[in-house]
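May I ask for an example protein's residues together with how it folds?

___
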Amino acid sequence: MTPSEFTEGVARLRAIPLFSSLSDDALRRVASVACELEVPAGHVLIQPDLEGSGIFVLEEGTAVVELPGEDVVCGPGEFVGELALLAEGVRHSARVRASTPLRCLAINRCDFAELLEDEPRIAVAMLPVLAHRLAETDRMLGKR
């Protein structure tokens, strides 16, 4: 990666809410471990009941989280796959499928754990999203 590509990558990361509060050095670290992934519509990113291997941060396009009884659409700036990474032994609870062509960043389990250890602000930025997702899950379960 050239210096200008690296600088562009840091600027793109800063635009993502999950990473927006990080220093340039921390963003460079994220850029060094994140792999850009482009997938066609219909591609499955996450299968239910499997152990998490990484987190996906959406940059362009949309993905659908297929939950029993209701689907949730995620778009640019959102992330999926985090729950199975945050606690040992937790498996994915839903299928996540690209509903449009998708460009995202993929960060593997080990690198993500190190990022959280070095940059706890990432975990703090995740908390409101996780709380919202938990409340939404409770709402959906209450409909049954």
Q: What stands out?
A: The mean pLDDT is 87. The chain has one domain: 3-142. DSSP finds five helices and eight strands in the chain.
